[in-house]
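agent: user wants the structure for Malate dehydrogenase from Rhodoferax antarcticus ANT.BR. delegating to structure tool.
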Amino acid sequence: SKKPVRVAVTGAAGQIGYAILFRIASGEMLGKDQPVMLSLLEVPVEKAQQALQGVMMELQDCAFPLLVGMQAHSDPMTAFKDVDYALLIGSRPRGPGMERAELLAVNAEIFTAQGKALNAVASRDVRVLVVGNPANTNAYIAMKSAPDLPRKNFTAMLRLDHNRALSQLATKTGKAVADIEKMAVWGNHSPTMYADYRFATINGESVKDMINDQDWNANTFLPTVGKRGAAIIAARGVSSAASAANAAIDHMHDWALGTNGKWVTMGIPSNGEYGIPKDTMFGFPVTCVNGEYTIVEGLPIDAFSQECINKTLKELQEEQAGVAHLL
Ligand code: NAI
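agent: tool returned. relaying tokens verbatim.
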């Protein structure tokens, strides 16, 4: 049987933590033949650590055959020791009356410390997914704080936007989600993201031609996908958790095990592709093989798309400029 891998999850006692840990432990993320050891990080606050103990009791009670070990931590330096995968979910959400600069600053502190800890103690091949918002900028901070690790191993979660776009397109066309290929989401995980179905096909047929409605694209589809998080908060009273956990499982699963040629979206550091400045943590369409992703290159960018890409890029650059002095 396979050698166990170590998976770190931060914010492990939170909502997304509760929706993801059981799926990681059951093998849905890394395969039904891959034993895992969970390294669970929560803030050093008694209530959070106690809640984490409760989650661990439930994990134990599932008696998952693939879960060969787990530990609770309150310090990233111990939590990230030798980890092969790190899901950075815990972050500081915007509180009532909190200024944007303050939000960026508290998160910069968290992700600087976690990036440094990964740099110091994680496996040299650690694959990192940042879910905690602002996800792209937090991933950028962690990457910048870990100079000894490969830049390409730091990623941000755009997969929820990608999946939301797929299901909106399936509904609109009356086709199955599973049959949609070549979806792309560009940019920041925020309402400015650009979900781009110009290349998408269903059984070889162009989705754009099937829909043939630019007004729907600009005024219904993009706002629906962009504001979906807010719509869920309005309906549920709390933010999306199960769908976010599901997207994180998809992201890591596909990165580790490959996409068989299918396009997925990952937030990854640019190397200048599509004119996005180097190191910008940007959503791109990618394919994955053997634990490595490759950007889908050479796609034509029309005027409308360029405008959308410029807008989300501008927002990301402002976020990154806002934390530059903290790095
Ligand atoms: P939550 O508030 O239920 O849980 C967050 C947990 O993280 C808390 O238990 C907290 O104690 C912990 N935490 C905070 N700082 C930490 C630190 N420095 N180290 C370790 N743990 C820490 O929040 P929820 O619903 O689980 O969401 C987590 C994050 O994911 C939020 O920032 C949310 O905005 C973001 N999110 C991102 C999505 C995406 O598509 N990228 C989608 C949905 C949510």
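agent: one observation worth passing along. The pocket of NAI is lined by residues 10-11, 13-17, 41-43, 48, 89-93, 110, 131-133, 135, 157, 160, 189, 239-241, 244 (CB under 6 Å).
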